[in-house]
Structures are given as structure tokens and as C-alpha cells.
Lantibiotic ABC transporter (Streptomyces achromogenes), 327 residues
Amino acid sequence: MAMVEGIDSRGMRHCETTALGVLLRHEGLDVSEPMLFGLGSGLSFVYWDAKGMDFPFLGGRVKPFELTRNLAALLGLELLVEETTSPRKAWQNVARPIDAGRPVGLQLDSYHLDYFTTKVHFGGHFVAIYGYDEQHAYLVDTESQGGTVSTSLAGLARARAERGPMTARHRSFTIAVPAGLTSLKDRITPAIKACAEAFLNPPIANLGHRGIEKAAKQVPKWLQRSENPREDLPRVALLSEKAGTGGALFRTLYRDFLAECTQLSENGHLRTGHRLYAEAAALWTQVAALIATAGESGDAEHLVQAGSVLHELARIEHDAMRALSML
């Protein structure tokens, strides 16, 4: 058996920030989950309806692992990333740092993890691994998934080897915090401005504020788009509110990040952004409820209402990011 000592496995809401928190606290850097999310410029939006998809997907954050890369670059962290097509080498990349006393972050498909009761393929899931024995791996996952958990080594290997949307090639990573780390307060403005710039100027129409506007036009048609609306629509609502987003499609996390920032700065643009994202978070929860009700009732009027709220959200988030871009 190999086990990293002194792991702080406090529960968090989102998987990537949960894994980051474990790795950084072990290095002596204790940052709140909203601050991790915000400093990683994690907020985004995507309306994804690719060919071959059974039903559209609403995403509220940047691509998997982009948050981690953003955070490491912003703070000057030493991020070591390993990827390989070899399962044997992939395990060596994990066992070596654990044997040396360092936890490891993993990106994998949650479908194959023993403790996941809802079996849905999702290749952008993250955990921190801090130990193993001959049969099991010992992990930290989100609070909703149990916090400190274990899974079979065979299941972990399948989860890491899975191929499909958002998967990585057995990706593992470690983080080291250098001496003389830059002040977090000094990095808040660059992180916010980078997030705002990407949101305000998306390269395609299904991203950022343009993506929310696209969703506003498409969501009212969802009863016709779905072959099984009683399952598809409530699932979208569940993914928005419960599936590791922290609530309101990550808007609650970003609202709380901005609230922390207002404690460090009296900037009026920052206060405006916080106020508007508090409003947006409440409206996203309303959209999720309307979509779920439409699926359960078959009444398209709820989707029409959801579309109207989404139009308002596109405006609110555009105005919020425009204010934040002026920091």
C-alpha cells in the first residue's frame, strides 16, 4: 500500500476545482473553491448540438483542464502534465509521485468509477488520487460524490482509457507551488479580464453571450427536438443545477468569486459585475426549473418562458462582462 499523508479532503462542489484544491492544499496553498474557479477564468457558455448527439448540451465553463492550465499560468505554478496511450506507463505516471508523497490529479470518464451510481459517460471528470493498494485506488471527488472514496484499480484503468467526447489520453498531473508565489490579489484583475474578453468576443456563435442568445432561440423548440422529452429535458436541468456545477450552471461559483473580490477592492465595475451575476445565477436556476417542468408536463409554454429568460440572461451577462472588462 502507498498513501500520501496529510491529505485535506474537504468537500467541494465542482470536480476540477476539487482536484485542484487537494493538490494545492498539500503544497500549502489554501484557496476557496470560488477563488480557484475565478482565478482559472473558468466561466463560459456553450450551446452544443453536434451531429450525432441525441440532445443538445448546455455547458457553463471552459473546456476540461483549461481552468487548471489558466490557473497555473496566472500564478506561476509548476504544472507537470503526463499523457500517454500506454496503460502501463499511465499507471507509472500516477504511482511514481504517490510513492514520493505527492497527490496526483486525473482526468477520466466517471462512468467506470465504482462509486458513481448514475452511469453516464462523461470524459471531462476530475479526481485527485492520494493512495493505492493491490486492488483499490483512493480518491478525492466532489462532496456530492462522497468526498474521500475508493474504486477498483481495474475500474480506474477503464475510466482513464475511455475514448469519446472530452476524454484525454490517460491524463495525470501534479502541481508544485514555487517559493515567492505572486500575490493572489494582484492576479484577480488579469483573470477577470481574460474571462470577460473570451466571453464577449467568442469565435463562433454558440459560445459566450452569443451562445446564450442562440440557446434562447433553440430551447423553445426542444419538445420537437427530443425523442424522449420526459428524460432529456429534466436531465438538462439536473446537469445545470446538480452535476458538479455548484448551481446555476457555474454562475453561483462565479458570483461567489466576485463577492470575495469585492472584499479586496472597492472598484465600481467589480461591484456591478457581482450584482449582475447574482441576478444571473437566480435566473439560471429559474431556466432549469422551466425546462424540467416542460419535459415532465409536455407543455411548450414553459420552454417559451425559458427562452424569454435566456434572452434576458444574454443581455445581463453581456453587461456584467462588459463592466468587468473595464477593471
User: Anything to note?
Assistant: The beta strands are 2-3, 43-48, 57-61, 78-82, 104-108, 125-132, 136-140, 148-152, 172-176. The mean pLDDT is 96. Residues 239 and 245 are 8 Å apart (CA to CA).
